[in-house]
């Protein structure tokens, strides 16, 4: 196992559940389910296919004779026909009706849609669990004041929970897109070599009514509501583009979260989980690197760029089909899903174990709060009879002095002391310090979190209660 390349997506990042969805076993068993659905449909519409033949196909739907198919493919160089042959070896009575009237894309493309749909559902499940963990985090810290930033410069305070709500809002938008794409997924159906169903005109002797029923019956048997109304030989490769765009959106949201955690960990305000025996650095034993968040960012970069692959493939298809999509699809689509699966496991793991340091948060906020409280101080001074324009200029000058003391002299912020010494304000240091309650400056942060959770997030979680309760294990 050490003498050939192995994908890190399988070895390190993706879950076994997602790996199985894109496994050969899932693929080829789905092919057999599709052949059974086709045979049943053709029998129902009047072709001479017996119950015995269909029973034989069902008997061997799961026990695929892979070696026979592999030997046949080495001879004929065609994967679909090799598996038709192998299925026929196991089902001699049904051999002649397997794949009747179909082209390779009947099993290939329909299977791709089925697999992507199952993978999207797993992504949705994990995204919902991340939302549930974030909801708990946001609720816990909804009233914890913290310094907010614009341009990574100190700005008006917010709360730790409100910041969590911002992360959730992005995932809520991703969930909306995800649900839309899942709901719009439709099978190719059985359209023939150029999408015209010409072979079925022959099979059903031109009976248009019967031919019109084929796709609907196959879709129902495979658990779908519909097939694409028109196509060439393949489903439109724009479907792959839509799917990977949703995955790229989730990756972008996770990347943003991971950036914030990495910055907060640098500030020592919030820290991702760090295990008892974990090594942060091979050289610096004291270090606690945010490796999980960094891995989220790394995988997210890959997914966002990978989304270009199906877009380019879709744009460059010729007429009813070309085969230059095949190799690219085999790589870009599964790997995007495997990477997003790994991202969501990491996201869940990080949120589940986030450590918040309120004392550090409070210290940084209080160091900056005098600057942010100047508007309130000025208003109080005006109420006591001061001139707003004059007081504004005085505060501006004093803020410059205090800022210089902090930045150039390395001293503590002494703005309050400077204001107290200025007779134009008529306020004592004790009075000024009373205005330093951080909760006065966070606006409606707490209420916004409560309303967001109650009105937006909780209804979603209640509707999907059966999907919650996941925990994520990180391999490395």
Structure write-up:
This protein is mainly alpha-helical and 476 residues long. Helices cover 64% and strands 3% of the residues. It is built from 20 helices and six strands. The strands form three sheets. It has a two-stranded antiparallel sheet with strand order 1-4. Helix 7 runs parallel beside helix 14, helix 11 runs antiparallel to helix 13 and helix 16 packs antiparallel against helix 17.
Write a short abstract of this structure.
The chain has helices at residues 8-13, 16-21, 24-44, 51-59, 66-76, 79-90, 104-140, 160-184, 198-203, 208-221, 238-266, 291-306, 308-315, 326-352, 358-372, 374-383, 388-407, 415-421, 429-434, 445-463; strands spanning 145-146, 149-150, 153-154, 158-159, 270-271, 355-356.
Q: What share of the residues does DSSP label as strand, in percent? A: under 5%
Helix content: 55-70%
- The strand line-up of the biggest sheet is 1-4
Helices and strands, in N-to-C order? HHHHHHHEEEEHHHHEHHHEHHHHHH
Over all CA atoms, what is the radius of gyration? 31 Å
Unreliable residue stretches? 281-286
Tell me the total number of β-strands: 6
Mean pLDDT: 93
SS class: mainly alpha
Overall morphology: elongated
Number of separate helices: 20
SSE arrangement:
Layout: H1 8-13, H2 16-21, H3 24-44, H4 51-59, H5 66-76, H6 79-90, H7 104-140, E1 145-146, E2 149-150, E3 153-154, E4 158-159, H8 160-184, H9 198-203, H10 208-221, H11 238-266, E5 270-271, H12 291-306, H13 308-315, H14 326-352, E6 355-356, H15 358-372, H16 374-383, H17 388-407, H18 415-421, H19 429-434, H20 445-463
Antiparallel strand pairs: 1-4, 2-3, 5-6
């Amino acid at each position: 196992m050490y003498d050939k390349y192995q994908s890190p997506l399988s070895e390190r990042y993706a879950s076994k559940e997602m790996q199985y969805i894109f496994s050969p076993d899932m693929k080829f068993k789905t092919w057999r389910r599709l052949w059974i659905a086709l045979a049943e449909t053709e029998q129902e519409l009047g072709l001479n296919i017996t119950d015995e033949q269909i029973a034989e196909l069902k008997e061997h739907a799961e026990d695929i004779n892979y070696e026979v198919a592999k030997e046949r493919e080495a001879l004929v160089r065609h994967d679909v026909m090799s598996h038709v042959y192998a299925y026929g070896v196991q089902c001699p009575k049904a051999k002649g009706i397997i794949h009747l009237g179909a082209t390779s894309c009947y099993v290939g493309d329909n299977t791709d849609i089925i697999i992507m749909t199952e993978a999207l559902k797993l992504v949705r499940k994990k995204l919902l669990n991340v939302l549930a963990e974030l909801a708990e985090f946001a609720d816990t810290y909804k009233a914890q004041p913290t310094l907010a930033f614009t341009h990574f410069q100190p700005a008006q305070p917010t709360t730790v929970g409100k910041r969590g709500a911002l992360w959730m809002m992005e995932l809520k938008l991703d969930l909306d897109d995800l649900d839309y794409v899942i709901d719009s997924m439709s099978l190719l159906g059985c359209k023939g070599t150029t999408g015209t169903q010409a072979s079925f005109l022959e099979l059903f002797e031109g009976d248009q009514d019967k031919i019109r029923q084929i796709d609907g019956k196959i879709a129902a048997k495979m658990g779908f509501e519909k097939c694409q109304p028109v196509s060439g030989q393949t489903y439109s490769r724009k479907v792959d583009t839509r799917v990977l765009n949703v995955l790229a959106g989730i990756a972008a949201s996770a990347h943003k979260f991971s950036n914030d955690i990495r910055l907060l960990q640098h500030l020592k305000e919030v820290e991702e989980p760090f295990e008892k025996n974990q090594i942060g650095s091979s050289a610096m034993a004291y270090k606690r690197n945010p490796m999980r968040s960094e891995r989220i960012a790394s995988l997210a970069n890959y997914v966002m760029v990978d989304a270009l692959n199906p877009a380019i493939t879709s744009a460059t298809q010729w007429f009813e089909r070309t085969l230059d999509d095949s190799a690219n699809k085999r790589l870009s689509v599964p790997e995007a899903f495997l990477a997003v699966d790994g991202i969501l496991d990491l996201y869940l793991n990080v949120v589940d174990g986030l450590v918040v340091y309120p004392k550090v948060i409070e210290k940084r906020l209080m160091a900056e709060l005098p600057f942010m409280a100047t508007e309130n101080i000025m208003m109080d001074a005006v109420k006591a009879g001061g001139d707003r324009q004059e007081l504004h200029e005085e505060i501006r000058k004093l803020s410059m002095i205090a800022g210089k003391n902090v930045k150039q002299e390395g001293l503590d912020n002494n703005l309050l002391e400077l204001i107290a010494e200025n007779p134009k304000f008529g306020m004592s240091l004790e009075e000024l310090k009373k205005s330093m309650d951080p909760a006065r400056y966070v606006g409606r942060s707490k209420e916004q979190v409560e309303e967001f959770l109650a009105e937006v997030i909780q209804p979603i979680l209640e509707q999907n209660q059966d999907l919650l309760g996941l925990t994520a294990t990180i391999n490395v």
